[in-house]
Automatic annotation (TrEMBL):
Residues 342-495 form the ATP-citrate synthase/succinyl-CoA ligase C-terminal domain. Residues 190-285 form the CoA-binding domain. It comes from Acidaminobacter hydrogenoformans DSM 2784. This is Succinyl-CoA synthetase, alpha subunit. GO terms for molecular function: succinate-CoA ligase (ADP-forming) activity; succinate-CoA ligase (GDP-forming) activity.
Length: 1004
């Protein structure tokens, strides 16, 4: 039975997940499992394996999908425990490494401004867009990532060429820059030979042989296997050759290529004939009869290595290199017995297939289903082919597929020789020889019992400095009964000799080159900087690729990449197009500057209807985007009932409900009339409201005053106690504060209070005690100076002193005055409103004016008062998210670590994590709100919808939790996330507004 677990927003690289899958498959009770990210490509792999469950179908690309085939559900718990253990161990390993981490390009470039190489090992379906960004940042690129469409490769390489950058790859598995190994690479001694190769294991075979001969490599520049394809035209190969020609420490150049396009090959040869340095070239599949001009043509990778070594030490190239001793000569096998090759290296497999086919006259290479040769019973398999690696580790990492194939082929009566390669080095299995040895020895024993001839012939691609140990690997395989050869070519010759076949190679001499030559152009400064220094690397993807770089003395930082926009390709394309419009950033900064420069002053407390004209009718204001009474949740409906009773429009709860249900009361969002309201946000004409003027441009904003704690209207309570308090606020609190404020010519400068209070531990949503006391300090002398009775003064001062959250409503009006000023600049992607009505969360953005973008609101997580639980919670509600809109509240959680436990966030480290995360989705920081616990960094400011959609990080909001039933009131406090869909809708709408249209092919 299939069981599925989806771990949302838990991105891990594919190699880690492949290794984890293997570990899970080894658990008792697990018939099979597959653990991959929820990309469309991976869903196809799940489907092909018969494991695409409904839950897996619904997963996003940033979700880890675990599908287990097991008889019992109890096994799932064991699997999940193992998964958690594995992920935790990865986390510990990351913490133990001295590598800095970035989560976006801006941060990565800030951390390493002199970076000159980006190394990619992310899923190919997303790689092209990210490589494009790296090129725009002036970085050379090494792309281990494969499955990039050919047309994208062509476009990217042309762009790299135009920018004077080198693009190595896609599907570039191996490289060395200034003797620094990159990706799947061996430990090679430094030297004077430079390699340019459209082949990963081709580089490894040639480089390791040169090392064992006593030579060394300075550069091994991979180009990707398709670079010499007719469509690509050898762009990277030509640039690599020119770079090596101009690199003084390089004395010999080696060119390695899989079978190339003829005209591209001819162009490459023309270039090689034009340079000054000696060249060795091997075009796999060709059997050269002579060397041509300056180019020494090799038949096998072994020949290429030996030629290059001889040239590097000043020796002439020999006429042939085929006189190396072969351990077995003469036929040892029956006539009907055949050779089977089971390779982990694609180039090594191709070389073996070519040599066997030619020696036995089998008609050339075969292609399809992983076979490079399938003729006359002889077979050579590339087990690194996509058909074997989809959703599984490469055979250089994991021996499972090859072990299965060894057992399968060893049991066949016609199998006489099994050819194997063992690749050592960084990224490869820690002891592949030791893992293969038992199956080799067992297979030989079984063949002996059956009186059947069977030979294993192996070559080891590695050096004596590789972590696995070359000599140890040789001895391990020999002890298991295998014949171990110095090279892949020698192994093939040995296999053929067991069939009584001698591979003959014609002696080669040099003939003149009679073709054209090229006028050489100088490489760019960026390319020469790369090859004249140790690379400075931003590693995007598999973190273990840093190991070889760091341990060999170069520098790297880790870009913790995950698919932008949750992997939504339409949104990714929109983001890329918007990010290419430079003026958007300028416009965003204009909006942010208006926010920074706001000058809010509290100037009066007035009856709402005196300035909000619509309230002179039977109208109530409410929080959030537009909503009608029947759609309101319990607490907002309760607030409406209370307001109707307060205004005297009805004499009883029943009459109030009937009036509301008949539609006799109209509703308008607070935000539509320069107002904001906490929780339900219900504001009626007789309620006193704070009047704040932003003196930057005289924008006015209003908000009701804080009622204190307990049963209050804003949380939906409407008992007589609530109504009486509202009447006292109307008749006493409002008029007293109004008269007090009239004693000041300017009113209360609120920026001063906010700046002080944020240094005292307020974040202005859950914690306002410092600001409330500072406000009390400012307003008390005004109250005492006003022409009021002592009892009025005493009542108001005592209320203010007892109401720790009084400043929250002031802060909300500050936020409204600031954003409404900034909203007058109608360009850019900055969020200018966030609010919620209990049903929908709504945002507005600078570039789309008054348009609302809404999505279903989330329910807060947090702590509950005694007797209540999450079952009682109403979905999030209120205009108070205006605080987060201007960068305080949960955005500035680090300012108030004391409140984090109350809202369920944890402690100081969690508060720091929250503010750092919120900083990632903002474009600036507000120096007016400097936070001591954040090293006096200003509060984050300017939420950018592009950053939200790209990262998937949505604003966190501190909030109170109302009971879902009307009349009960507050039952807890916590945090809630804004729904991502609001920001996605805003992004698409803004793109459309600018004339950007992107077709969603996934939905067509």
């Amino acid at each position: 039975m299939l069981y599925t677990v989806v771990k949302a927003n838990n991105y891990q690289d594919s190699i880690s997940l492949m290794l984890l899958t293997n570990a899970i498959n080894a658990l008792p009770g697990v018939d099979r499992s597959s653990i991959m990210m929820g990309t469309e490509a991976n869903k196809n792999i799940f489907e092909n394996a018969g494991m695409l469950t409904q839950e897996a179908k619904m997963a996003n690309p940033n979700d880890m999908v675990i599908v287990i085939d097991a008889e019992s559900g109890d096994t799932v718990d064991e699997v999940l425990a193992e998964v958690d253990k594995f992920i935790n161990q990865l986390s510990v390993k990351k913490e133990g490494k001295n590598v800095e981490h970035a989560t976006n390009w801006s941060k990565a470039m800030e951390m390493m401004p002199d970076a000159n190489l980006a190394v990619f090992s992310i899923p190919g379906e997303y790689a092209a867009e990210e490589i494009d960004k790296a090129l725009d940042l002036g970085l050379n690129v090494f792309s281990f990532s494969d499955n990039i469409p050919l047309e994208d490769e062509v476009a990217l390489k042309n762009k790299a060429k135009e920018k004077g950058l080198l693009l190595m790859g896609p599907d570039c598995g191996t490289g060395m820059i200034s003797s620094i190994p990159i990706a799947f690479t061996n430990i090679i001694r430094p030297g004077n030979i430079g390699i340019a190769a459209a082949s990963g294991t081709g580089i490894q075979e040639v480089a390791t042989m040169i090392d064992r001969l006593g030579g060394g490599i300075v550069h091994a520049i991979g180009t990707g296997g398709r670079d010499l394809n007719e469509a690509v035209g050898g762009i990277s190969m030509k640039d690599a050759i020119l770079a090596l020609e101009n690199h003084d420490p390089t004395d010999v150049i080696v060119v390695i290529s899989k079978p190339p396009s003829k005209w591209v090959r001819d162009e490459v040869v023309e270039l090689l004939q034009s340079i000054s340095k000696p060249v060795v070239a091997i075009f796999l599949g060709e059997k050269p009869e002579h060397h041509i001009g300056k180019v020494h043509l090799a038949y096998t990778l072994e020949e290429a290595a030996r030629m290059a070594y001889d040239l590097s030490v000043g020796k002439p190239v020999q006429k042939n290199y085929t006189d190396q001793s072969v351990e077995h000569t003469g036929s040892k096998l029956q006539e009907n017995q055949v050779i089977k090759g089971l390779y982990s290296g694609g180039t090594l497999a191709a070389e073996a297939a070519m040599l066997i086919s030619e020696a036995l006259e089998l008609g050339g290479l075969t292609k399809g289903e992983g076979f490079l040769l399938k003729a006359g019973g002889h077979e050579v398999l590339d087990l690194g082919d996509d058909m074997y690696t989809q959703g599984k580790p490469h055979p250089m990492i994991d021996p499972e597929v090859r072990i299965h194939k060894i057992k399968e082929y060893a049991s066949l009566e016609d199998t006489g020789v099994i050819l194997l390669d063992v690749v050592l080095g960084y990224g490869a299995h820690p002891d592949m020889a030791g893992t293969l040895a038992p199956v080799i020895s067992t297979s030989l024993e079984k063949a002996k019992e059956l009186s059947r001839d069977l030979y294993f012939v192996a070559s080891i691609c590695g050096t004596r400095n590789d972590p696995q140990g070359y000599d140890e690997a040789v001895q391990t395989l020999k002890s298991a009964g295998a014949i171990v050869c110095e090279s892949n070519a020698e192994a093939v010759k040995t296999a053929l000799s067991l069939k009584g076949i001698v591979l003959k190679v014609t002696e080669r001499t040099t003939v003149p080159y009679g073709g054209p030559t090229k006028q050489l152009s100088a490489p760019s400064e960026a390319v020469m900087d790369l090859i004249n220094s140790k690379p400075r690397i931003i590693n995007i993807g598999v973190e273990s690729f840093n190991d070889s770089v760091i341990s060999n003395g170069a520098t790297a930082i880790q870009f913790d990449w995950k698919p932008a926009a949750g992997g939504n390709k339409k949104l990714i394309k929109i983001l890329n197009k918007l990010n290419q419009i430079s003026w958007i950033n300028d416009e965003n900064m204009k909006v942010v500057e208006l926010m920074k420069n706001g000058q809010p002053f509290l100037v009066d407390v007035i009856p709402a209807r005196s300035e909000i004209e619509v309230l002179n009718q039977k109208v109530l204001l409410h929080a959030g985007p537009p909503i009608v009474y029947k759609d309101m949740t319990g607490p907002m409906q309760g607030s409406c009932i209370g307001a109707v009773l307060f205004e005297g429009w009805a004499d009883s709860e029943q009459d109030a409900v009937a009036m509301l249900e008949r539609g006799e009361v109209k509703f308008v969002p607070c935000h539509h009339v320069n107002a904001v309201g906490p929780m339900g946000g219900i504001t009626s004409g007789s309620m006193p409201v704070l009047k704040i003027i932003n003196r930057l441009d005289n924008t006015v904003a209003y908000c009701t005053m804080n009622e204190g704690i307990g049963k209050v209207l804003r949380f939906g309570a409407y008992s007589d106690e609530v109504i009486q308090r509202l009447k006292w606020m109307r008749d006493t609190l409002g008029p007293v504060l109004s008269k007090a404020l009239q004693t000041s010519e300017t009113g209360v400068n609120l920026n001063v209070i906010v700046a002080k209070a944020i240094t005292m531990g307020d974040e202005f949503h859950q914690r306002n005690i410092a600001a409330s006391l500072n406000f009390l300090k400012e307003v008390t002398p005004m109250i005492l100076k006003a022409d009021l009775s002592n009892s009025e003064k005493t009542e108001v001062i005592e209320f203010l002193a007892a109401t720790d959250q009084f400043f929250l409503n002031i802060m909300m009006a500050i936020g409204k005055s600031v954003v409404d000023c900034a909203r007058k600049h109608t360009q850019g992607t900055i969020v200018t409103t966030m609010t919620r009505n209990g049903r929908e969360f709504g945002i507005r953005i600078s570039g789309m004016g008054d348009t609302w973008f809404t999505a279903p609101v989330n329910t807060p997580n947090g702590l509950y008062f005694t007797g209540y639980s999450s079952e009682d919670a109403n979905p999030d509600i209120g205009d108070s998210a205006i605080t987060e809109t201007i960068g305080v509240g949960a955005m500035a959680m680090i300012a108030a670590p004391g409140v984090t436990r109350f809202v369920g966030a944890g402690g100081f480290e969690d508060a720091l994590k929250v503010s750092n995360e919120m900083d990632e989705i903002c474009v600036a920081n507000n120096p007016n709100y400097a936070i001591p616990t954040w090293d006096f960094k200003g509060a984050s400011l300017g939420i950018d919808i592009r950053k939200v959609v790209e990262t998937g990080i949505t604003p966190l909001i501190n909030t109170g939790i109302a009971h879902k039933k009307a009349g009960i009131g507050q039952v807890g406090a916590g945090t809630v996330r804004a729904p991502l869909a609001c920001f996605e809708k805003a992004l698409e709408a803004y793109a459309h507004h600018l004339g950007i249209e992107v077709v969603d092919h996934e939905r067509d």
